[in-house]
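Quick question, first post here. What does this chain look like in 3D?
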Amino acid sequence: MAKHDDQCRKSISCPAAQQSGRLPPGSGRVQLAAARPGIVGGSLRRNASPCSRRCVHAFVVEDGLAATMQPSDVARALRRAVMARAQEVLGRATLPRFFSGHESDGSPAQTQSRPHLTFLFDPRSARLLIVAPHVVDRRDSTREERTHLETLDTAMTDFRELRAGPAGRLMVRASAIDPHADPLFAPSRVWESVTPYQVTRHTKHVGAAEALSADVRAECRRRGLPEPRVTPLDPRGVPGVGLVGGARLTFEVAVEGPVVLGKSRHLGGGLFAG
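> Answer (accepted):
Ran it through. Tokens below.
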């Protein structure tokens, strides 16, 4: 078991899992050093569990992306596709909130007590990303989450097309991630917004820039990140949405990605790159 854990930390594709038949070569299903729980300044807690399941799925859009697309539209379409494919795997069983992000009555699941998948679209590299909650939260996965990740692995096998409404009919292919070079995952002291950050709550009696900065700092603490120096970028109010904007985060030490923050982080918002 320890030997397997070492292999997983050294290789993002987890050769041991490929040899066991759990991870088809070139599938684009990625294990990031057993989810790299407890990351602060690039360190990894030694009690990380072995990587028998993938915790990031990445796909590159090869064709069909509309020039006027919005990352949130693509992320929402990806969520719908994942939900449908997971339901096919599960049959008549109720789809867990892990996939939908909603309770059985349709209300949004509380992230802290009911963690669920994050769906992202990186417009710079035209990539779709499905990220397990323990990766975003920088902790160990639970037994229940590992069971759901096995379902996700099966559901995303041979995923080639995403119908994303106004964003286009996307032809995609599975893509590998290099955690040492990829700007969404490699350690960096400075991280800058790729998609708009939406505040979780508006601090009263302060301006938009300070409210956004304070919210970002609080979100970093909630996600297990050190508190950064925040430089707000174009904070603005959006009717029906609230305060949104970009930000540049400067940490005292390099931190590993992914850095996904804010109210809309599960559906394409608040993505940062190093």
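The longest strand covers residues 242-255.
The helical segments are 2-10, 15-19, 71-90, 97-100, 133-137, 143-155, 208-222.
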